[in-house]
Amino acid sequence: MNQLFLLHGNDPALKDLMANPLIRHGTHLPKSLSKDTVIIQWGNETRVSDEYKVLNSAHFIEKVADKEHMLKSLDHQGIHVQTPFSQNVHLQVFLVPVFHLKVLALYRCTLHTENVLYPQNEVSFDLRNRQHRLIGRYAIRVIYALGLDYGVVKLGLISARKCTVLDVIPTPILDHNMRELFFKAIRSYHGELIEERKRTKEALIGLDVEFLLRNDKGKITFASNYFNRKGKVGCDSVLNGNKWIFPIAELRPNPSKIPKQLTINIFKLMHFAQEQINDPSIEWLAGGMPVKGLPLGGHIHMSQIWLNSFLLRVLDNYLTLPIMLIEDRTSLLRRPKYGFLGDFRTQIHGGFEYRSLPSWIVSPNITKGVLTLVRLIADHYWDLKSRPLNDETIQAHFYNGNKEALYPYVKKLWSDLEGLDSYAIYSKDLQAFKKQLFDKRSWNEQLDIRTSWRISPFDTLPKK
Question: I need a surface site. Which of 5, 15, 21, 274 has the fewest CB within 10 A?
């Protein structure tokens, strides 16, 4: 079965791609087109029904066409942009073609080619180069934040650690080099799409989740006092001036396909961590930012599943958005620098890491609920179609922490989840999470998480 349709505007540059017998194409959608078909919209202004999955829909391309609006949208999401009032001095300017979460190439602009769309001085893109990684991640984030799936991003490098967006071209004009890059990317995407639709293996779920240690004087105790950097219980670094310090503790349990088992794995590591610390007076804090300046994350690792933009957007809408409604207000402080929508990193060993969530190990019920939602999403993301976060107003509510305005949308999202075939299997494990969510009860990031997990010295408390 053909999984892809190229909806184009008769651009002669697409002639070679249209000659590919494996990819259907046309200037109009066939009436017989399956709703499972992914549509790549290129230079065609047709408004495609939300029933279809579309790369670069006309709706988002129209928004990007208003450059002032586009820059405001990016700025609101924590992405640095160039404005007429910016005083930035660019060390270098780059053009970065992106297709579906991947950088295709890197071009450096010289003073004489800065305003030329496609300069010829291509740079060999190398993920081992820290500057290249920065530019690549930023370009991918820009495309994703605008609701797009491909395009060319023009970035200015302000410092070794900071970029600014100069422009975004959602439907690039294809010269010879650019045509080859995008055609190869589309063919690769088509193959990955076919393989994913044939996949029968369940996704494997792993995680690394962070917490802080606070002594009886209210001061942070560095996790590196008790744990090595690596291992099932380790520590993570923070840059303090020019020095790396290791204040954050991290749990890295064995992965599993079963949410309950993952929760048990976390519980066992907590017991091990308590034995290593061996000081009952030291509190354990989780959440988004229980201590100002130290943002925490609960990163979900997924393997044996295709990393794709539809999956990422389902994770944003059906996982990150509901969790935001039970976060403490201090969690808001980590966004948008951390915890922004669609934050991911690929893993060297395969799979990817979804990084948008705060540290959700504040209680066993929330932990079990989060991991169960991940399981449902991994199994059914293709069927979950609501995208409230596509609306910029809803996005603004998310980043500004306006919970009350978001509850009606989350109720609809939860209704979608309850309509899944597998929901009944997991409904018991989601019951406490759902109740807290719709009772509008936020977690408290100042409470010692050992209390709810019954980790010593709280393991002798009577059960409620």
Answer: 21
CATH number for 131: 3.30.470.20
Residue 199 in domain: no
Strand 24-26 to strand 4-8: parallel, antiparallel, or no bridges (unpaired)?
A: parallel
Cα 226 to chain centroid, rounded:
31
If asked whether residues 222 and 322 sit together in one domain, one would say yes
Same domain, 276 and 160: no
pLDDT tens for each residue of the chain, 464 residues long: 568 999 999 888 888 888 888 889 999 999 888 888 999 999 999 999 988 999 999 999 999 999 999 999 999 999 999 877 676 677 788 999 999 999 999 998 865 454 445 555 888 888 788 889 999 999 999 999 999 999 999 999 888 788 999 999 999 988 888 999 999 999 999 999 999 999 999 999 999 999 999 999 999 999 999 999 999 999 988 877 778 889 999 999 999 999 999 999 999 999 999 999 999 999 999 999 999 999 999 999 999 999 999 999 999 999 999 999 999 999 999 999 999 999 999 988 789 999 999 999 999 999 999 999 999 999 999 999 999 999 999 999 999 999 999 999 999 999 999 999 999 999 999 999 999 999 999 999 999 999 999 999 998 755 55
Hey, what long-range contacts does 126-130 have (CB within 8 A, 24 or more apart)? 130/160
Query: Taking the CA of residue 344 as centre, how many other CA atoms within 13 Å lie in the half-sphere pointing to its CB?
Result: 27
Number of domains the chain is built from:
3
0.85 cut: is pTM over it? yes
Could you say which of 170, 189, 219 is where a domain stops? 170
Both tokens of residue 184?
Answer: 């190869």
- Supply the range of the domain harboring residue 69: 61-170
DSSP string, 395-410: HHHHHHT-HHHHHHHH
CA–CA gap between residue 102 and residue 105 (Å, rounded): 9
Domain boundary among 39, 60, 81: 60
Inter-CA distances, 166 with 83, 98, 340, 419, Å:
8, 15, 21, 43
